[in-house]
Amino acid sequence: MVGSRRVLALRDVVFGYDKPFLHVPELRVEEGSFYAVVGPNGAGKTTLMKLMAGIYKPWEGEVSIDGEPLRYEDRKWIAKKVAIVSQSVDWNLSLSVYEIVSMGRYPHGEKEIRSEVGAEVVYDAMVSVNVEKFMDRAFSELSGGEAQRALIARALAQQPEFLLLDEPISHLDIYHQVAVLELCKRIVKNGMTVVAVLHDLNMAGWFADVIILLQDGKIRSVGDVISVLNAELIEEVFGVSMLGYRVDGRTSVLIPKSALKNES
């Protein structure tokens, strides 16, 4: 789309399993921002991500990219538009890191995978997430942080317009959590749009540009950090009494009130 921002949009979407669950009248994910999807357990965060990625097809409504409905019958077309790093990964894969990242080139054709251009894309993807130094190691030998970065490199090798990350920091220590989220910010600066499911509201507040707050299969609020991650709204959605503090004019810091009570 020359001269305009790329958009991943959901309109009048209804989806469920045995009965309707997720209802999204309208959601627009626009190029150039880091979106964090937050909400209580069971709110529909992973379901929303799989709808965005074309893994699930809505019962009603439409998911589109740049105004064109997803071509569910053409997986390669979708993979060139959207890459997703999901929660469920086989950590015991014996393939090398290079082979894992190279999988990201499959949507572009087998010949392209073995081409000089394809190899360069794969290497650049590894460099961008700092995993090129162990490209020959088995994926199963990597630490949690290394493996997560390798999977993001595989997604980057797809050269998608939108990168979706489902709970990318849930099992990482604080160092690797920050490293992954800083990587997301760099990816956005380089022209890609990132959408990540995050459970840590303060991490979402520090790193994301836009917050998508889900509750009971519905979008409760979408907006900047200050407007969405405020103590009153978070208390309504999560049922926890919070105190909110504003830092640097754009970031909310949330603290449970119970944590500040003096022990008797």
Mind sketching the topology for me?
Elements (H helix, E strand, L loop, with lengths): L6 E10 L3 E11 L3 E5 L6 H8 L7 E6 L2 E2 L5 H7 E4 L11 H6 L7 H4 L2 H13 L15 H14 L4 E5 L7 H16 L3 E5 L3 H7 L2 E6 L2 E6 L1 H4 L2 H8 L3 E6 L3 E6 L8
Helix pairs in contact: 5-6
Reported for the largest beta sheet, the result is: 6 strands, mixed
Shape: globular
Oligomer: single chain
Spatial strand sequence of the major β-sheet: 6-7-8-3-9-10
- Percent helix: 25-40%
The end-to-end span amounts to 62 Å
Average pLDDT metric: 90
N to C succession of SSEs:
EEEHEEHEHHHHEHEHEEHHEE
Number of helix segments?
Answer: 10
Can you give a write-up of this model?
The structure is a single chain. With 264 residues, this protein is α/β, with parallel strands linked by helices. Helix content is 33%, strand content 27%. It has ten helices and twelve strands. Strands 6-7-8-3-9-10 form a six-stranded mixed beta sheet, sandwiched between helices. It has a four-stranded antiparallel beta sheet with strand order 2-1-4-5, with helices on one face. A two-stranded antiparallel sheet has the order 11-12. Strand 4 and strand 5 form a beta hairpin.
A few lines on this structure:
By secondary structure, the protein is an alpha/beta fold.
Spell out the key features of this protein.
264 residues, alpha/beta, six-stranded mixed beta sheet, four-stranded antiparallel beta sheet, 33% helix, globular
